[in-house]
Structures are given as structure tokens and as C-alpha cells.
Amino acid sequence: MNKHHSVCLPLPNNPIHSPIPMPFPILRTSFVVLSEIISLLEPNEIVTASLCSKKVRHLLKNHYQRRKPSKWRLSMFSWGLVDIMTRTVSKRINVMMARHISEQEGTEHKSIEFNGYKGTLDKGLPILYFRDHVFGIKMVVDYVTDLFGLDIYGFTTGSDGLWAFDWINNRQEKLLGGKGLNKNPNYALNEDKTDDDVLIVRNDVSINARFNGKLGPPDVLLLDSDAHWVTCDYLMKSDAIKLFVSFSKLSELELNSFLRHWRAGGSPRLAYLKVRFDDEDTYFVNFDEDLETFETKAWTRFRVVVDDDCFEIREDYIIQRQDGVKATIHCGLGHFTMFVWHSDKN
Amino acid sequence: MSSTEQGTSSAAPAEPTTAPESAAAPEVPESFYYVHGKDKVVHKVSAGALQHSALIHGMISNLGYTEEQAKANPFPFENIDGDILQMVVDWCNQHKGKPTPPEDTNLPKQKEKLFDLVLAVNYLEIKELLTYCCKQVAMMVKGKSPEEIREIWMIPTDAEDEAAEKEAKKRAGKEAAGETAAAAGDAK
């Protein structure tokens, strides 16, 4: 056993001498207490604690096998980062990272070690360094997914991370089912529609060549960094469930054309379309008459990702498809949003 | 609300002094029960305060003790140190009939007692106090490295675990050999 002290101890191997509080023999507590403590830790703290010993790692793994954090969403980034979204899109926590050994931090960070690999703890984030970065990324992702019993839900990649699509698809049943679309940075994120897993992918490669046919159309599509090039024709062909277009130069004429296409039965899977205009002063107001839109004061909510990420919609426009499906259109300064009310309630 | 006195569980405690109640005192006289820990110091606690403890609440809910009976039969918690029980009783009194705030400022301050407090609170099934205590335990490792966490939570290293396991196996082997030898001796 460790020699434990009841006073603040400097750690000889660590450059940062933070005071050590009074020891608490956690492994001598009951199952109930242990579970309560674990449930109060953030995911990055769980990962750090799991590096203490094999026994603790098994204990934490067992905890998450029993209490699967079903609402947590794990994402990997091709540069080696793993993060977990615990409740909402905005509540994301970096939990572990693999870096190339050439990026090793100086001695200002606390040092850690796992399986013979050296690392540092940077603001609560365990970072391990590897000579083979791809090997390290795989190891770190495997480690975290195994610890929490989670699949990879989202993937963000640069052009050097394309290997990961096949790797992810080979390691789990939930495939990355989307296609990349953007210049950079590239991104893939599995979003919730209802209970289904859907996916966002962005990347800068020739998407059609790489993903078409193999992975099918994307369920969720983010065009977020430089989507000037997105045309009405492109929107019509995307066939996504949720479509986010940022820095758009789409004109009223084009959006009207898209709405006409949708009313005629086009983009049948579309549940959510968010267009952020490049010009923040753009305000879409002129609907073509043949679209038969009408104003509504009704108040409703639309769940974009999880329950905590609901949009409240009021005082907007209604448009109806020829088959009866309705959509609400919200027009604000600099953006245009469309919520489609499918019979499955989105 | 509570008072303590030195005595034994069987000895009838002297009339405890009680702190003045809030202005809105209940119309029906409140019932009191008595508990003591390892040190045999008896604490008089109201049923309202004891409601925080699922264990004690379950014990008293069907007793229907009179004041005299309650006094004569304090609940013995021999596995809880007296000072720890005092902390728990104090907390229950402070939070009697009140919604517990998200951040509790009335938590026992003696960190060196946290482990014993957690054991007691868990045993007495005081859910909210347990959560507060566990928050303190969780807070201990914020921003700490695995090495520091090992120190704080007294977690053995893999090598120490392996050595302990080896030792345990060795001991078990010896005991088994001893039993076999004894059985063989008996057979003769």
C-alpha cells in the first residue's frame, strides 16, 4: 500500500506542488458511496482517476457498464482529442488526448504515465505522447470508449484523418453514415434525431468520390466554415435530415426555389434547415406567392439534439407540402430556419 | 434541539436542554428520540430531524414510543464514533424541516473525519448529507494527476496490488495446507 500522510505533501516528480488534502481511502467505502462519488466526477476526472491503477480502471469500467451514460456522446478528433458531450452540445468536456512526441509539453505541467507512455496533465486533460501518432490516437480512443462503454458518436477530421473513417466503421456497429462536405475543418458528428443515431460529417476531400454509395447520404450535415459555394441545387440534392449552412450567400430567389422543391416532395427527409447568411443583415421576408405561406403566432418547441437543446418557435410562417406535412419557417436577422413537422414528431 | 450527556445506553438520560424553536412552533408537541454512538453519549433528537435518516425513520415510524419509552430505549449505534454522531445529529437539526440548499454551508468542517462521517451517513441512510460529503470527496481530486489522486484516495499502485494479491494467495495456500494437515492428523 501507499504510504499515506495526513499533511500536505509536495510530490517530488511533479513540478506543480499543489497541496494534497487529507487522504480519503476511497476503496474502503461501500458500493453505494463509491457510485455516488463516481457520479459526481466529470468525464475527464474519471479518465484521470482510471490511470491510477488497473483495479480502479476495472472498478470505473464496471460502474459504467452498470450505469451506461446513455446520454453522453463521445467524439474523436483526428488530431488526437477525445471529448464527451454530457448533456448539451455546449457542454463538451475534453477527456483525453494523444499527441505526437514532438509536441511534448515542458515541465510546467504535471507528469503522468500510462502503459509506459509518458504524458502530462494540462488543465485536467490527460495527454499522452506517442512516436506513432495514429497508433496513439487509436489507443486513446479505444481506452476512453472501453472505459465508458461508449461508441464513437462524432468525428472531426482534417485531411490527414481520413484513415479514421474505416477504422471507426470497422470497430463499431454504428457506422459513420455521412459524407464530408466542407473545405475545412472537417467534422463528423452523430446527432440524435429521436432515438436514432444520425451523423454529421464535414471534410475537405472530394466527398462524393469517397463516401457516395459506401456510406449513403448524410443524416446531419454541417457546412459551417466556408459555405459560400452552397447553391440551391446543392441543398436540393443533399437529402439530409438536419442541414446547417453557415456563411451562406443563398439568395431569396434560391431559398424560394428550395421551398418550392420541398413542397413538391423534394428533400423528403429534411427535418431541420438552418441557414446563417454571410451578410448578417440579411433578412428573408419575401416568400413567393405560390408557396402559400401564412403567418402563425403558435408557440412550439423543436428538439435539435437533446432535450436541453430545444428551440422555441413563435410568430413565424407555416408552409405546407402537397402531402400535408407542414413546416415552420423562422426568419431572423442573418438567418433562416425551417422546422419540418414529420408525423414521427421529429 | 439536541443535547448530549455522558451515560450508557441503558441509563435513562437526564432531561436535556433544548434550544429555542423557531417562532412557528408546531401545534402538536414534537416527539423526541434518543441515539448514542460508541461513546455512549446520548443525543436527544426530534423525530423531524431524524426524518433525514431513512434508517432511523424506518425504525421509529411504527414504534409509537412514549417520551419515557423513548428515553429508556435510546438507539445504539455502536459502530459510529461519538463525535461523528454528534456531527450527524447537528446536521439533521440544522436541516430539520427545511429544503436543503444546493450548496450546503453547514457541512462538518473537520476534513480528517470525512471518511468516518461518510461511513456513518451511508449507514444511517442520510441521502442528502451523503451527497454533500461525496461532493467533498470528488472535489479533492479536481485538477489532480493520477499520482496525486493515488495519494489522496489512498489507492495502491498496480505493483502494490499485485504484491498484496500474491501475499493473500500465499496466506490462503498456507491456511489450506494447515487445514489439510489438521484433517490428516484427525484422520489418524
From TrEMBL, chain A:
Domain F-box: 32-64
Domain of life assignment: Eukaryota
Residue span, Sdz-33 F-box domain: 225-275
Protein name, UniProt field: F-box domain-containing protein
Lineage: Eukaryota, Metazoa, Ecdysozoa, Nematoda, Chromadorea
UniProtKB/TrEMBL annotation, chain B:
Role of this protein: Probable essential component of SCF (SKP1-CUL1-F-box protein) E3 ubiquitin-protein ligase complexes, which mediate the ubiquitination and subsequent proteasomal degradation of target proteins. Regulates cell proliferation during embryonic and larval development.
Region (Disordered): 1-25, 160-188
Domain SKP1 component dimerisation: 127-170
One GO process term, biological-process aspect: ubiquitin-dependent protein catabolic process
Pathway linked to the protein: Protein modification; protein ubiquitination
Pfam families recorded: Skp1, Skp1_POZ
Matches recorded under SUPFAM superfamilies: POZ domain, Skp1 dimerisation domain-like
Family affiliation: Belongs to the SKP1 family.
Signal peptide start and end residues: none
Keywords for the protein's UniProt record, in alphabetical order: Ubl conjugation pathway
Domain SKP1 component POZ: 38-96
Keyword Transcription tagged: no
Compositional bias segments (type: Basic and acidic residues): 165-177
Top-rank lineage group of the source organism: Eukaryota
Bias kind Low complexity: ranges: 8-25, 178-188
UniProt-recorded name of the protein: Skp1-related protein
